[in-house]
Amino acid sequence: MRKEFIDYIENLKEVNKYKDEYLIIDGDDNEIIEKFHTITKNQRLCFERNNQILDKILYNRILNNDDLSKEEINEYQEFASNLFTHQIQLDVAIAYEIHSWLLDLAIKRQDHDLIIEESYFKGLAIYYIYLNDITLDECEETFYTPFNYTKEEYFKLSKKARNYFNRSMGNYLMCLSRTKNTQLDVDKLISQYERVIEFQSDKEVRALDPDINWDLFIYTEKTNFTSVLTPLKNDLYTDDTRLIDQLYTYIKDCYDEGVEKINLTVTPSSSVMLYRYYSAQYYKKIITLEELCDKLEKLSTPNLNDPLNYDSIQRIFQNSANLILYLHKLKKQGYEVNERITNVLNEMDYHISELSPSDHTKLFFSTMDLYIQISFMTLPEDQLYDRILHTTVYQSFQLFIHINMLKVICCDLCQYLIVKHPEYFLSLPNIDSIDKVLEMEQEIISMIEKFIILHDVGSVQMLSIITNFGRNLTNLERTILTNHPIDSFKMMISAPIDENIKKMTIAHHRSYDNKSGYPSLEVIKKYCSTDQQPYRILLDIFHVASTLEAATDTVLRPYRTPKDIDTILDEMRTKRGTEYSPLVLDLFNDKTLKQIITNLLSKVRKEIIVDTVKHYRKIQNNSF
Length: 624
Fold this sequence. Notes:
Blueprint: H1 3-22, H2 29-62, H3 70-83, H4 92-109, H5 112-129, H6 136-142, H7 145-148, H8 151-155, H9 159-176, H10 186-200, H11 203-208, H12 214-229, H13 241-261, H14 271-283, H15 289-299, H16 310-332, H17 338-353, H18 357-378, H19 381-395, H20 397-420, H21 434-439, H22 441-454, H23 463-466, H24 475-481, H25 484-491, H26 499-506, H27 521-528, H28 536-551, H29 565-573, H30 582-585, H31 591-619
Helix pairs in contact: 1-2, 3-4, 4-5, 5-9, 9-12, 12-13, 13-14, 14-15, 15-16, 16-17, 16-18, 18-19, 20-22, 20-28, 20-31, 22-26, 25-26, 28-29
């Protein structure tokens, strides 16, 4: 592998090492801040080096790829595999860029061996980079190979390409399990699946590669297929008797084969199949919802013969979360299950506390969205905000500090506005006079604090992007990031939260004049039925505060050069009335307020960083 590839990989490893250093920072207040500055400085150097390398070996090369030799293709494939495989996920997004580029080149050259190979790896990267909401179009574009090749064309492929061809169906199904399932054409999917199974059962196909474990291929595809069809995603298709029959048959086959061929027991890998099997029995009406909960409770109980390690606790965590989802369904049917839910949550917390600090963080990185989902479903509002803020430490130091910085800046701006210009708040619901504004000051501030805690909760599904300080974001990553207001809204849609907070959350990246930003107005109306914001003034305050906080950060954002408050205010004033509210921007003409906010952006930021480190130390070995 060429030197630039090796240098890039080593730089990424160094960046990851610096991420770990955040978790072990200690010392007095000044030492903590100095260590943060040192880590940020080192990250920035790696960031700049990697961007230079990528410009040279990838982006400039993509523009002139017609002369790429077979040897160079092999080099890039090796580079991508060092960045990403099933076991290694050092930089999935750049691996995706490489495989997309090579797939386009293969199609242009009509190199069918390379087409098969690169579609497989591009699809695998799609699965891992898109943490949710893959579209069917993306799946179909990438995975057309298992469905369009004839047997004669298959025979012309190299042995290596045939191997990837036969693994493509499993990849396709893995990706489909993360699609927006309302789009699924079930009949088409079943037809595609059965065609591949028939193909892999063909005697001539099997005779061509007798050393391949064809039954294992089919079993893997069948288990992936049950993952796609399992009607637990919003209870889709559960009224479709034909589909439920089909689903139950497939899952029962997998379960029976598992018991017979792999001695299926309650292990981290097999409990997923048991969970699907029990769920399928419920939807088939073989067992009741109560019986399903009883079975899932057993899956959530530690096996006395299994050591309590990361894998077993991850299984307990996931099965407990699934149990809570079904207990919540029981609750909706009028059953009294609150105590049972509380007991399950306490058990989860206890087992989580048994993990080492690094495994603790690792678990929450992999299952945080599930944990937050059940928090929204089960906790009363008075407990919800503290729990969400508490879990944020495990997502990202940066996000936790960002939230706390926004709270103090927005609260100060809000208090200042209420005193100086209470008339700005007359548009808020249930407020019809200046006296009412002054009377409800604490309620208004509480509203913006709650919104700030929740506004980025959907970003848990894209932590690998948010915490990537190794290089500039790719176009795909930027696109994924624009989904986080929608993801935040969807996560809290059924939670006991003020509807206005939900509306503010989905619109917190829209501009002041509502003509730019994301998501689009059409998308907002789809989820909220309206794009009107009764608490518009709070969003205007937040928008200015968020820009100031990010642009002046000297400690936690190695991917940008910090600016002083005068420079960033001058830049923001060029967008006065379009991107930013004139009312809020004009507040900074007051030198006293400007000095207060300047102090927050420097001294108070450092205090929050120190408090965050101490807070993390305190809870490292404690449960939630």
